[in-house]
Amino acid sequence: MKTRHRILMAAAAVALTLTGSACGGGDDEGTGSGDGQGDLGTIKVAVGIRQTFEFLPAEYGVELGVWQKRGLKVENVYVQGSGQVSQAMASGQTDLGLTAGASGVDAILSGVPSKIVGLIGKDFKMMIVVVPKDSPITDINGLKGKTVGVSAAGSLTDYLAKTITVHQGWAETDIKRANIGGLNEQLAALESGATDAFVWSAEAGFALEEQGKGRVLMDFGDVVKDNVFEDIVANDSAIKDREAAVRAYLEGWYETVNHMKANRDETIAFMVKEFEVSQNVASKTYDHDIDNLSLDGTIPEVNLKGLAKSVVDQGIADKEPAIETFWDGRFVPVTAAG
After folding, report:
1. Are strands 197-201 and 147-150 parallel, antiparallel or unpaired?
2. Are 66 and 255 within 8 A, CB to CB?
3. For residues 75-93, average pLDDT
4. In this structure, are residues 52 and 201 in contact, taking their beta carbons and an 8 Å threshold?
5. Quick one: the chain helix, strand, coil %, rounded to 5?
6. Among 295, 245, 258, 308, which residue's Cα sits nearest to residue 121?
7. Strand, helix or coil at 212?
8. DSSP element (H, E) containing 127
9. Model-level pTM greater than 0.90?
């Protein structure tokens, strides 16, 4: 596989750096057997980024006590992006991961023994394009011939910038993709004129609009169709040996999502505290993204097929993988509400 060496060699480095990064779990380090509802032990979850709405249930669920009441202790391990989620899973430092759809498949095809076990969101409207506040670019057509910042080659942001050209029927070279890095670097490149736009998550775009530093040009909801935006992955060992713990985690996750959907004001207040954003940004993000969060983890067949196709489009694989190589549907739909 194209990325096997990169992921598995990087896993050793991640194993050395994750110590002390966990939060939300307390002090008990017992792993438990996963065989009893009363004491399911500890499960460690690699979270691709902290301040993003679609991963909010990871911390909100801890606050709500959804896992504690199921006898499961959850430790969230915050890393930098989906690549490091894959590395944490490969190193055995975490049991589960919250990651981008194609990145999870990339890791599986690269030799990380894991499967997707639940959907976070399938719609790409959570990702947006930001341009300078006074940019003459007013719609997607204005991006032709421009330089668009992405986090790294092969990343989700890189893939999305590439999909613009496909969607518009342009040559791939009609948009120059620049590997810039994190949000601060993206903003610096935008302000200096090194880039004309960049791809990022919705809440960051709304915050930049509020600060007068940028403008949200578009989201990717109409550009990427029938795919999987982000999902929950589990190590094969957790699926095999701790199935009850994996089920309990998923039950708690989707209970949290249902709670968020039913309690807008409370969820927004938690976002303001957790993300340190304004009430306005939190409200905009909630209204923009809440309907994309899956309530039961099910991934429609058409989206699984689209995900398989996307790993070829991104250059991750030479041919579409069989769905059963990356998806384990035994855990969904999740119906437990409490």
Report:
1. parallel
2. yes
3. 89
4. yes
5. 50, 20, 35
6. 295
7. coil
8. strand 127-131
9. no
- CB neighbour list of residue 240: distance below 8 Å, 6 or more residues apart: none
In eight-state DSSP terms, residue 320 is P
Measured between its terminal Cα atoms, the distance across the chain in Å is 41
CA-nearest of 196, 202, 201 to 145 is 196
CA 318 to chain centre: 24
Residue 11 near residue 87 (C-beta atoms within 8 A) = yes
Distance, in Å, from the CA atom of 22 to the CA atom of 7, rounded to the nearest integer, reads 21
DSSP assignment letter at 321? P
- CA 286, CA 106: separation in Å to the nearest integer? 29
Residue 193: CB partners within 8 Å, gap ≥ 6?
Answer: none
SS3 205: helix
Please give the Cα distance from 112 to 99 (Å, whole number): 14
Higher-pLDDT residue of 29, 143? 143
Q: Which residues contact 54 (CB under 8 A, 6 or more apart)?
A: 120, 121, 126, 229, 230, 289, 292, 293
What is the CB neighbour count within 10 angstroms for residue 237? 12
DSSP single-letter state for residue 315: T
Using DSSP bridges, classify how beta strands 114-121 and 230-235 pair: parallel, antiparallel or unpaired.
Answer: antiparallel
Query: Given a cut of 60, is residue 14 above it in pLDDT?
Result: no
For 225-252, the pLDDT digits (tens) are 999 999 999 999 999 999 999 999 999 9
> For the chain, how many residues are written?
338
Tokens, residue 26: 């307390």
CA distance 310 to 37: 38
